[in-house]
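Please go through the sequence and fold tokens given here and tell me how the chain folds. Record follows.
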Amino acid sequence: MTDIEDLEENDKGLLSVNVYFLKEEDGKKSILLYQLSKVPKATHHINLIKLDKGDVSHFVFVKNYDRLISSQTNKMKATKHHCQGCQKGFTTKEVLDKHVERGCLAVGGQHIEMPDKEEVMKFKNHSKKLKAPFVIYADFECLTVPKEVNQNDNTQRYQHHRPCGFMINVVSSMDGSSYQFLHRGEVCLDVFTDRMMVKNEIMNRMKEEKHIIMTEQDQRDFDNATHCFICGECFKQGDKKVRDHCHFTGKYQGCAHDDCNLQFAVRYYKIPVFLHISRTMVLILS
């Protein structure tokens, strides 16, 4: 095998040689890669099969690689273009070329690229750490109602789900309070749509702004703070320290940079809704 490597090296990119071998297991023979060429983009390429008989090895030239590998990948049912490394078959030459360009793992292996020592990745979207002030949970209940069966359909649908009731639970993380609404009836979808307008009440509460409530301990913590409680960075000379507080309760939350405090807000708040519902019901509501 060293002779093949020497041949490739002496030809300086003109010739590449892949060597395969036959492996027999449980009475079945498979063609596997034995040695992959180190010159993947050579002008000329040759595939060989290594046949062993005792201590003697013979090399056989492979005239049509795709046809040979197709005998074990798709049993010659259709023409496929196979990767020289992983032997995976592709329907077109273009798809195979993309596979090779992106890097076959069998050829190059997994590639790990480490950042430079000077490159540091930091989390910046600190507003994403804010806990949602309000969350809506909803659940529907349905009855299975018989329906007319179409005998021409392959799938016989003999019943469908008809909504008969729902419950909405609005939970506030600010004070732990919750508001529930339960409804049962025929027109529950219309009632559900109307009750979901509770979002307007929530958005009005979002406009509330209570003044900060500072205890003596809070003031001492603020005076002795050396790091911003939002970004975690230390305060440098010239930095403006501000008091961050909850606009709903007025409770002091920590000492922060002025810029961090401005960004740490629910300015673009959207109410999360967790709906336990079937796909059919989703289509109706949307």
